[in-house]
Every structure is written in structure tokens, then in C-alpha cells.
Design goal:
The protein contains six helices and five strands, in the order βαβααβαααββ. Helix 1 packs across helix 3. It is α/β, with parallel strands linked by helices and about 120 residues long. The relative contact order is 0.28.
Amino acid sequence: MIAAGFGFRKGASVTSLMDALSAAAGGRPVSVLATAADKAQTGVFRSLAAEARLPVRGVDAGSLAAQRTRTHSQASLEARDVGSLAEAAALAAAGEGARLLAPRTISGDGMATCALAEGNGP
């Protein structure tokens, strides 16, 4: 299964999230969308899931912090204590032993990031 993990700024649109997803996925089939538990409840993320017809997995802070990310964003470190929310969410959602397929990609407007991880699920 492939999990798409997201980080996004307040004010990000569904278009921003979809742009980041398209860039990260590159045509690969995605099984689940993931982000921090609080962000998973936002209207924009729920709208993305409805448009993509994919389930949402909200990841708790402890599970995010346990992930080793390839990239490091100062904003993500300050806000979430993790190098990349997108990468950490993808890895956590993909399950134990998951691996990143590629580092996070950034939407064209800079409002969202997305990373893909492959694993056997939780």
C-alpha cells in the first residue's frame, strides 16, 4: 500500500494539496491520505479526500516524532518537532518498516507538501 503524507499551511486550498499529491505520486496509485491528527480534521483535507475518493488517516504526535525523515523544514521542526510532516505522516500511515518512495514535493504555490511511503499498512 502507498500512503500519501501531507503538510500544509493555514490557507492552503484543495488545489494546493492536489498539486502536491500529483507531483509526488507521478501516476502511482495511492491507498490513503495522511497528515497530523488535527490537520486531518480540517475542511480542506476532508475535501481533498472526498475529491480523491481516498480514506484519511490522522497521525498522532508521538507516531510522527518517531519517524526519520529525509528532509528538514525549519517550519515543520518548530510546529511539529519533526523534519517533514509530509514524510513523517506518510511513513507512519504506511506502517512498520515503511520506506519513502521519494522525499517531499512542494506544491507550485508553496502552501502544501506531499510525500509517498510504501508499506504493509498499520
